[in-house]
Amino acid sequence: MASSSSSWELPLVAVCQVTSTPDKQQNFKTCAELVREAARLGACLAFLPEAFDFIARDPAETLRLSEPLGGNLLEDYIQLARECGLWLSLGGFHERGQDWEQTQKIYNCHVLLNSKGSVVATYRKTHLCDVELPGQGPMRESNSTIAGPSLESPVSTPAGKIGLAICYDMRFPELSLALAQAGAEILTYPSAFGSVTGPAHWEVLLRARAIETQCYVVAAAQCGSHHEKRASYGHSMVVDPWGTVVARCSDGPGLCLAQINLNYLRQVRQHMPVFQHRRPDLYGNLGHPLS
Q1: In a 3-state reduction of DSSP, which class is residue 153?
Q2: Which of 24, 105, 125, 161 is catalytic?
Q3: Less crowded by CB within 10 Å, the N or C end of the chain?
Q4: Which GO terms describe its cellular component (predicted)?
């Protein structure tokens, strides 16, 4: 069927919003339903939030529930990606690394799976959220988690080249600039934002990152009450390279869809060539720590 619009050819991505609890099996069931729905709706890639695997009540429970990348949970997601034939951004997995025996600490690991279920990239969160805000319980991510050693080069996917980050990373524009300079067209910030920082900073930071890098920004978020000690802000969204919010989730678990138009991205970059106008002679070559 001929169509006057070529929009149907544009890759479609799905952004999933969930309320993780300490119940790993139930969390998988919820995420799997959303991923299957994304596949039915024609998405080529589905994004899950940080801590899609679980949100525990305390650091001891976090460590107890964590698994290595070779464990059962990731195997379930590998099978799911194969079954649905889509790529999966697993936004923040509590990973027992190879140093688990010595450190008894984990990594917050963003895993990217392709549609055959292969792990194509892993990024371990480099900025840990150790903050104390009035009105929100203190966050001490470093109690259980080790900061990752490096950024990950952007990865080619059916939707475009994706630069991987996680939640608190969005407060560090150097990271997004580094990924953009390394070729990223989509930046992704899977998150579990709190109830104080969410209304104040969530949307404005995501839109700023999109505008300054001229990238799409995809932010899958946790929402609602996880257990008696923790709640998340939600408001998952996709922002285009002009800074417009082109999709957002409603309140509560669910998903939203967005088309990724790389021709539009190239137009924005052509009309306003900020990366050609940068002055590293003045402020250092901010944003080149990628090999």
Answers
A1: coil
A2: 125
A3: N
A4: mitochondrion
CA dist 149 and 155 (Å) reads: 18
Sign of CA pseudo-dihedral 194, 195, 196, 198: positive
Q: Residue 259: helix, strand or coil by DSSP?
A: strand
Active site residue 185: no
Neighbours of 141 (CB within 10 A): 19
Annotated catalytic residue: which of 44, 167, 223, 249?
Answer: 167
* Residue 135 pLDDT grade (very low, low, confident, very high; cuts 50, 70, 90): confident
**Which CA distances in Å does 213 have to 173, 177, 199, 274?**
9, 6, 23, 8
Report yes or no on whether pTM surpasses 0.90.
yes
**How sure is the predictor about 9, in pLDDT bands with cuts at 50, 70 and 90?**
confident
Are the C-beta atoms of 185 and 161 separated by less than 8 Å? Answer: yes
* Number of residues that this document lists for the chain: 291
Distance from C-alpha of 230 to C-alpha of 5, rounded to nearest angstrom: 45
Write the Ramachandran bin of 252: left for phi over 0, alpha for psi from -120 to 50, otherwise beta. left
Q: pLDDT at residue 138 above 80?
A: no
Residue 16 appears among annotated catalytic residues: no
In the chain, the domains with their CATH numbers are 12-274 (3.60.110.10)
CA-CA distance, 215 to 184, in Å (whole number)?
7
pLDDT tens digits, residue range 227-281? 888 888 999 999 999 999 999 999 999 999 999 999 999 999 999 999 999 998 9
User: How many Å apart are CA 20 and CA 7, to the nearest integer?
Assistant: 34
Please list, residue by residue across 64-93, b when 16 or more beta carbons sit within 10 angstroms of its beta carbon and e when fewer do.
ebbbebeeebbeebbebbeebebbbbbbbb
Looking at 31, 50, 141, 249, which residue is catalytic?
A: 50
Whole-angstrom Cα distance, residue 26 to residue 30?
6
